Amino acid sequence: MPNILDGKKLAQEIELILKQTIESGLKACKRPPGLAVIRVGNDPASGVYVSYKEKACHRVGVRSFSHHLKEDISEKELIEIIKVLNLDQNVDGILLQLPLPPHLDESILLGSIAPDKDADGLHPLNLGKLIKGEKGPRSCTPAGVMALLERNKIKIEGKKAVVVGRSILVGKPMALMLESANATVTVAHSKTEDLPSLTRQADLLVVAAGKPHLIGGIHVKENSVVIDVGIHRLPCDKNDLSGSKKFKLCGDVKTLEIEDKVASFSPVPGGVGPMTVTMLLANTVDRWQEHCGLPLTISHLLP
Ligand code: NAP
């Protein structure tokens, strides 16, 4: 039986560390860490993610400042709000929930967040720090994957890793983090020819394509490690004509086809998803320690 990489359990363990870190720093700092969460419009999936993040803040003792803004807010107005948060001394981290409505330029807006408060690690300066191997806030999902690998003692150095997907949010920073950990990394994308023969070479396969069930048995190598970043809400049964509105969560990987072949895999749900939220908290608490002049005791959690 393969080893299931339990992100939910690890997220709980890290949350406990974060909670204790906050409790022990509160006296010196005189205020809890603060995370501003900006949501634009009414995308239902974003609403669900934002509520997970706010609940997680509450669990560990991070104060969350919620900004739910109207769909047609102008870029100028949004930048003004971000500028105010950049100067707010109670705010250590700022998260701009993606995706944004099409009239807003994601890159300009992410670039207007103070790099020092970049809870999602997506500011160009912090992506540059990642490329250079310098410490800084890290993109939460790939950071969560690295924590999951480390906790499960999965050797990365010297291994062949394939990352399917090259987004700024997941694929690219994932590839950089794996390379920093001394894997030999190949990045696949939608124009990659003969994906199965490439992914079959991977000792470690990270799939972040956003395509439900893209990866099956023919794509994986025996005894490899497969990380499924994808997350999709699909109707439970296509043949169910009862009008039932039940949904299930699935990833980019056909778990049933790979589970007897691989050494370890991350499930959906309960794998990478909970780790993403926890790494957001880790970035925020790390920033809080820095802003309060406390020793940086949790930066080892950020790859
Ligand atoms: P994205 O921006 O849509 O990027 C998808 C990437 O996959 C692109 O680089 C695309 O290639 C590549 N791709 C698409 N179809 C492919 C195919 N058939 N073969 C090979 N590559 C293909 O998505 P994202 O933001 O990176 O997110 C990816 C998935 O992760 C989504 O399901 C998302 O919901 C999920 N996600 C989960 C978490 C979590 O916490 N679990 C966090 C973030 C994202 P091109 O560049 O050529 O278009």
Topology record:
Elements (H helix, E strand, L loop, with lengths): L2 E2 L2 H23 L4 E7 L3 H17 L2 E7 L5 H13 L5 E4 L9 H7 L11 H9 L7 H12 L8 E5 L6 H10 L3 E5 L6 H5 L4 E4 L17 E4 L3 E4 L11 E4 L4 H4 L5 E2 L6 H20 L12
Parallel strand pairs: 1-11, 2-3, 2-4, 5-6, 5-7, 7-8, 8-11
Antiparallel strand pairs: 9-10
Helix pairs in contact: 1-10, 2-10, 6-7, 6-10
The structure holds NADP nicotinamide-adenine-dinucleotide phosphate.
Explain what the structure shows.
With 303 residues, the chain is α/β, with parallel strands linked by helices. It folds into two domains: 27-115, Rossmann fold (3-Layer(aba) Sandwich); 140-274, NAD(P)-binding Rossmann-like Domain (Rossmann fold), CATH 3.40.50. The protein has ten helices and eleven strands. It has helices at 7-29, 44-60, 75-87, 106-112, 124-132, 140-151, 171-180, 195-199, 255-258, 272-291; strands at residues 3-4, 34-40, 63-69, 93-96, 160-164, 184-188, 204-207, 225-228, 232-235, 247-250, 264-265. The strands form three sheets. A six-stranded parallel beta sheet has the order 1-11-8-7-5-6. Strands 3-2-4 form a three-stranded parallel beta sheet, with helices on both faces. α6 packs across α10. Bound molecules: NADP nicotinamide-adenine-dinucleotide phosphate (NAP). Residues 141, 164-167, 169-171, 188-192, 195, 208-211, 214, 229-231, 272-273, 276 line the site of NADP nicotinamide-adenine-dinucleotide phosphate. NADP nicotinamide-adenine-dinucleotide phosphate (NAP) binds next to α10.
